[in-house]
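Quick one: structure tokens for this chain, please?
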Amino acid sequence: MLNPKIMVGCLLLAASFTSVSFAKNVKVTSPNKALVVEISDEGDVLSYQVSLNGQRILKPSKLGLLFREKAGFAQPLSIAKTQSGQLDTTWEQPWGERKFVRDHHNYLMISLKTGDNQDFDVSMHFKVFDDGFGFRYEGQGSASEEVAVIDDLTEFVFESPEQTQSLWIPSRAWNRYEFLYENTSMDKIDRVHTPATFKLPTGEHISIHEAALVNFAAMTLDQQRTGTLKSDLTPRFDGLKVLTKGDFKSSWRTVQVSKDAVGLLNSDLILNLNEPNKLGDVSWVEPGKYIGIWWGMHLDVNTWGSGPKHGATTERTKEYLDFAAKYGFDGVLVEGWNLGWDGSWFDNGDVFSFTQSYDDFDLSAVSTHAKSKGVRLVGHHETSGSISNYEAQMEEAYALYQKHGVRQVKTGYVADGGNIKRIDEKGIARKEWHDSQLVINHYLHSIQRAAEYQISINTHEPIKDTGLRRTYPNWISREGARGQEFNAWGSPPNDPAHTVELVYTRMLSGPMDFTPGIFNLAFEGLDAENRVQTTLAKQLALYVVLYSPIQMAADLIEHYEQNLPAFQFIQDVPTDWQQSRALAGELGQYVVFARQQRDSQDWFLGAITDDKKRRVEVSLDFLPPGAVFEAQIYQDGKDANWRDNPYDLDIIKRQVKHSDSLTLNLASSGGVAIRFKAL
């Protein structure tokens, strides 16, 4: 046996010749200590693993980026030094699900070195909250250096994929984000968009997404080995994933974590990983409700293009403005007012004018009438995916709207995935994905330019939400999923589970302009394929469940006047909240939300279910102790169901208080909507 002193000497001698290094493992925990993220450089490869309450929920998963001109994370790397700390602050939203947001996290910044002991020019930043964690890659190079990213090595490796429930939609497909969700085991996944949400066999819930996506490519998830979800960045037209500078910052890769489904819904992680408001005073950003000349086109009652059925006429718009003023709505959306809709508008984005109207639409007269009624015109810009045509007219178009008192604009990018048209600096037409780096930059460009004219943007066919509404509060809402219009002409229409599944996926990223409130649920009859597969009560409940600071009463106005008792809830429900709480729910099955109206004592509750009828008990302990409320309840009647009796609605009033509970009886694809009015 060798003398211990000789052994030490041999090790030191060997190290001096072979640069032997020992693996480092560093940990960062959540403030409550339950969530632990461990980062390792074992085998000269950077990886991480995650546990919750001592139970491993993500196996060792690779980290890193690959670059065109240099080795990136393909070379041996090790942890050189770390910096850690904690932040605990509270910040105020100008509008949102809650007025005040707590940002409480522990952070860890990691500097790396190469195998030859040189500083590596990409560092990593982790932030761990009680409700999940985020991490991103930060370039340490020069702002004048060009860096091309060709792959993202980031993985999310699960323990038991065959037993893990998954809610997902495909990525890199023709209909962008507008697909029905699949509810399968994880092993059935191919390549999917985020947010993608999972329930582990041990009961924990995980949703993977990203935050603060700026000048980078969107992350999709590609299942390689079963259970290994690898980041698959959406490519540019030239095949590169990202072309950036040496001081780049990737988006935050986010993992929201909860012991139950409801915990995911009460998370503020995405917002907290975005930068604070960069616009300054945004008092001109106005939450509210609107109606619109919109649903009639989807029903083929009207047309976007000119002719005998043209929807956007001066006369019809004034009628809608009068209705809005009478029933307390803030705005009227008008689609099809501007030149370019005639013919196949889906394919002719290059001919849209964003300043010239059809002869039967007088923008000045309509704006004057709107002002006299105390209602605003909501603008509309459909690009059909021709973004260079839009950018060329953007300044003039926003200036025109500002002149006429328009504060909100709905933009549209109707084009198949991969068919966004962009003219490059050489005059060459390029085709891009909606979620590639260059188009992502276009979306943000429109937000920044609109802010100069005090205009808020509601983007349809958008890039997915990553919380940038915190940084740019005029990005007031967006679509980014299958909306209500599919019920008018989709094949198939949205199924009974769709809006429930949205809550646990798309809605985790931020507000959605789903356009609820259809009262004529079967315009072509109950036996028609194209109809709304919900009860009337569920349409009311969506105003509380599917959060957006702007909400549309989407149906034809005559359908509301035929059912004013039910319409009262839409008039009463606000769109801006003091606080919000998910009270109950299961992944893809049902959900119950309670929200307090901002700067008011009133609360609202919404509950929706999938195709299965349910009986749910909810405590009213969210109401303040000592106060009495009138509960104005809009619920499914005892014989209601979405298939053949969707209009059966009971409206009940009763007094309730903090110590009470309510039994919610939800019909098949039904719901409950409640206003708790302080007495």
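The two ends are 87 Å apart (CA to CA).
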